Task: structure prediction
Amino acid sequence: FFLYVQSAILAFATGTMVPLSLLPGAVAGILRLLPFTHVVFTPAMLLTGQMGTGEGLLCLAVLLAWVAAIVFIGQGLYRKLRTRYEGVGI
Result:
């Protein structure tokens, strides 16, 4: 059940279930701050010519910001939690 719900949420957020251009402006604006929409919806819109290069660069900036945030959080967690791990065995 959990995997089905997760897949439905991701399908909605990426724009594969319902095109994001049909959603109200506020909902689409919130979804465009998440990285999921830029995986499927943005490349399709760029290839069909319905989105300009300026908006494409903004989407690239959003993806780069998410990657930087995840790397920063991951490195911080690694530094904090690596001393707690006790490797046992060979």
